[in-house]
UniProtKB/TrEMBL annotation:
It is found in: Cytoplasm. GO terms for molecular function: ATP binding; protein serine/threonine kinase activity. ATP binds at K38. One of its GO terms (biological process) is positive regulation of macroautophagy. One of its GO terms (cellular component) is cytosol. It catalyses: L-seryl-[protein] + ATP = O-phospho-L-seryl-[protein] + ADP + H(+); L-threonyl-[protein] + ATP = O-phospho-L-threonyl-[protein] + ADP + H(+). Its main location: cytoplasm. This is Serine/threonine-protein kinase TBK1. Gene3D superfamilies: 1.20.1270.420, Phosphatidylinositol 3-kinase Catalytic Subunit, Chain A, domain 1, Phosphorylase Kinase, domain 1, Transferase(Phosphotransferase) domain 1. Keywords: ATP-binding, Coiled coil, Cytoplasm, Immunity, Innate immunity, Kinase, Nucleotide-binding, Serine/threonine-protein kinase, Transferase. InterPro entries: IKK, Kinase-like_dom_sf, Prot_kinase_dom, Protein_kinase_ATP_BS, TBK1_CC1, TBK1_ULD. The gene is IKBKE. The keyword Kinase applies.
Length: 725
């Protein structure tokens, strides 16, 4: 045990160790509060006094939630060694997080954004106080978990830090070689004499390497054999990097460098975030200090990301998920353009559904007023383009390529590393399997919504047809009545109006036949849509019964236990006979579980996913064709309604003409033909007047029918189709 006047710790509680100091977990003697104590060794006192005091002064000067706090500076009782008493971060460092096999391919997007926000905020505080850190790396970014369960990251280890303004330079060399700026690497690692001075941008290079490591789980620049074994090539990669490249890997000894301008597909970050992050990495991973961004631009661009909100979108025809990073104040047009950039679906062809209903986006609506979305509850995008969208699906790299080779020879160090790689590969396989399952669920749900909407549209079009049909039936009856009126007139059979009525009758018959064809088509569409819905229900039941994800999770749990056992074995100087036999069995079991994982993934997860996508493509074609045909049918029925109105106008004109003729007949008794004897003339006139009265009453009835038809036609013409359909 060691102590200072106020703190106590055991040397077994080692948290970290460096060239000049060791860090232990300690307790306050009075309160029991946990703290971290940094105890300096004898080598630290060989440094100049100014350098020894620098870290104390730096920490006293800094006060920020993303920088580890300094509580006190004390001395041990016996040796009088200096001790820094600091804030204890119970969850280790960012390096510990990245060494977890679950993060072998980088952090999940929400966690990466937290790292980005915390590091940027901490670095901003350093620059406000004119401090350059000079040893930024995942091991110097501590983590603790807040009361809300969310990670908080804090910069620590200011042993290499010093005050330096933006326009100042320094010549001393500090840092960890994988994260060192190339100019500093040349002098510190390769030991080449040079007279270069370094500015504050050396921290930006280290931040770039750290962010790449956090995003991908790997270092950006890797020579064959690794950075520590092939230092000359490491320097060559970092100094000869082409503009815009963010990574360079040498696959073979003395081989060429494979440059990368994108983050790998294995990375967990969405395409939307990658698009924002890659330009930042490209401009801070710049060896030429004159071309590298300054901190002002770095802070501006990173804060631009952090101030955006995310809208999750699922493109139904393409079966692909997208995350749109957009400012809260941006309007719908900006959002539609951002969706177009990721999906290639033109803004005027984008239609959306949310929670089962068409979702109309007002052109002036700001993004902060959009509905709340998530990966499992996105806006569902439907393209209305004539050309069908190609199915894209989930982009992923075959996880079999990331599984290590299992060798029979027992080597506890190598076996532990192999087990760690295998567990990391299974984590990645499980994530891909979950993404494939989520894609299938979103496809089925989106199709269900669209089909439900189309069925409603079928009902609306049928109602439209019924309305027009009601008018037609009435008009056919009116045509018969009107023709009867004309035929009742003396000499009416030869009137021109009867020819016009015959044309109306023929037109009405054609419209009736057209409506009948429309009805049959709509019923066929309804049947086809019901068939797809039935298939979707059946698939949902099959998906519910599928246990492949649970099987993968079970295999992962068993492999994690083996990895844990191998970690213990790695710390043993030598395994006993029994322990070695158990180790061999565990190793065989590890290989068996890895093969089982790949078998489940390929034979169940991928096969089901591919089957669903194959069916989805044909279903979407049917749905889109139905959608187009329904629109055409609605237009055809609308045309029938227009023709019915024209027929009604013809009948109205015929009635108006008849009315004038009837009135003329009533006022002109001379036109009444002579009535043969013995019927008196006055009686003949009375009978004619009675007939005319009957005709006028019939005409009133026909006029009422016409007015009723008008009201139906007006209602039909005012019924707008369902939005987007």
């Amino acid at each position: 045990m060691q102590s200072t006047p106020n703190y106590l710790w055991s040397t077994d509680d080692l948290l970290g160790q460096g060239a000049t100091a060791s860090v232990y977990k300690a307790r306050n003697k009075k309160s029991g509060e946990l703290v971290a104590v940094k105890v300096f060794n004898n080598a630290s006192y060989l440094r100049p006094q100014e350098v020894q005091m620098r870290e104390f002064e730096m920490l006293r000067k800094l006060n920020h939630k993303n920088i580890v706090r300094l509580f006190a500076v004390e001395e041990t009782g016996s040796s009088k060694q200096k001790v820094l008493v600091m804030e204890y971060c119970s969850s280790g460092s960012l390096l510990n997080v990245l060494e977890d096999p679950a993060n072998a391919f980088g952090l999940a997007e929400p966690e990466f954004l937290i790292v980005l926000q915390c590091v940027v905020a901490g670095m901003n505080h350093l620059r406000e106080n004119g401090v350059v850190h000079r040893d930024i790396k995942p091991g110097n970014i501590m983590r603790l978990v807040g009361e809300d369960g969310q990670s908080i990251y804090k910069l620590t280890d200011f042993g290499a830090a010093r005050e330096l303004e933006d326009d100042e330079k320094f010549v001393s060399v500090y840092g960890t070689e994988e994260y060192l700026h190339p100019d500093m690497y040349e002098r510190a690692v390769l030991r080449k004499p040079q007279q270069k001075a370094y500015g504050v941008t050396v921290d930006l290079w280290s931040i770039g390497v750290t962010f790449y490591h956090a995003a991908t789980g790997s270092l950006p620049f890797v020579p064959f054999g690794g950075p520590r074994r092939n230092k000359e090539t490491m320097y060559k990669i970092t100094t000869e990097k082409p503009p815009g490249a963010i990574a360079g890997v040498q696959r073979q000894e003395n081989g060429s460098i494979e440059w990368s301008y994108e983050l790998p597909v294995t990375c967990q970050l969405s395409a939307g975030l990658k698009d924002q992050l890659i330009p930042i990495l490209a401009n801070i991973l710049e060896a030429d200090q004159e071309k590298c961004w300054g901190f002002d631009q770095f802070f501006a661009e990173t804060n631009d990301i952090l101030h955006r909100i995310v809208v999750d979108v699922f493109s139904l025809q393409q079966a692909s998920s997208h995350r749109i990073y957009i400012h809260p104040y941006n309007t719908t047009s900006k959002f539609l353009d951002a969706v177009f950039k990721q999906t290639s679906i033109a803004p005027h062809h984008q239609e959306y559904f949310y929670e089962g209903h068409p979702y109309e986006l007002d052109p002036n609506l700001q993004a902060h007023s959009f509905c709340r979305t998530a990966r499992h509850s996105p806006l569902t995008l439907l393209s209305s383009a004539e050309q069908p969208e190609e199915v894209v699906g989930v982009r992923y790299r075959d996880p079999a390529l990331d599984f290590p080779k299992f060798v029979p020879k027992v080597d506890v160090v190598a076996d532990c590393s192999t087990a760690k790689s295998a567990v990391g590969a299974v984590h990645q396989t499980l994530r891909i399997a979950q993404a494939l399952r989520r894609c299938q669920e979103l496809v089925a749900r989106g199709l269900h919504w669209v089909i439900g909407n189309l069925k409603s549209e079928c009902s609306r079009v049928l109602e439209q047809r019924r309305g027009v049909n009601t008018v037609l039936t009435s008009l056919q009856l009116l045509e018969v009545k009107t023709r009867g009126l004309y035929e009742a007139l003396p000499g009416g059979s030869g009137l021109p109006a009867l020819k016009d009525l015959a044309v109306v009758k023929s037109r009405l018959q054609r419209v009736v036949e057209e409506l009948s064809q429309c009805s049959h088509s709509i019923y066929d569409f309804q049947g086809a849509l019901d068939g797809i819905l039935s298939e979707l229900v059946q698939h949902r039941q099959q998906a519910h019964e599928d246990k492949s994800i649970q099987q993968l999770e079970c295999c992962l749990e068993k492999m994690q236990l083996i990895h844990k056992q191998f970690r213990k074995a790695r710390n043993c100087p030598r395994l006993g006979y029994n322990e070695e036999q158990i180790h061999k069995l565990d190793k065989v079991n590890l290989g068996h579980l890895a093969r089982k994982v790949l078998l489940i993934f390929q034979d169940e997860c991928v096969r089901q996913y591919q089957d669903v996508l194959a069916l989805h493509s044909s279903r979407m074609r049917k749905v889109c064709e139905t959608k187009k045909h329904l629109k055409r049918l609605s237009n055809r029925i609308g045309t029938c309604g227009v023709e019915a109105m024209e027929c009604q106008e013809c009948l109205q004109h015929a009635l108006d003409t008849f009315s004038q003729m009837a009135l003329t007949e009533k006022r002109s008794p001379a036109l009444v033909p002579p009535v043969p004897s013995p019927v008196p003339l006055s009686q003949a006139r009375r009978e004619m007047a009675f007939q005319m009265q009957e005709l006028l009453e019939q005409m009133k009835s026909v006029t009422c029918d016409l007015q009723f038809n008008n009201s139906i036609i007006e209602r039909l013409s005012g019924a707008a189709p369902t939005p987007g359909l």
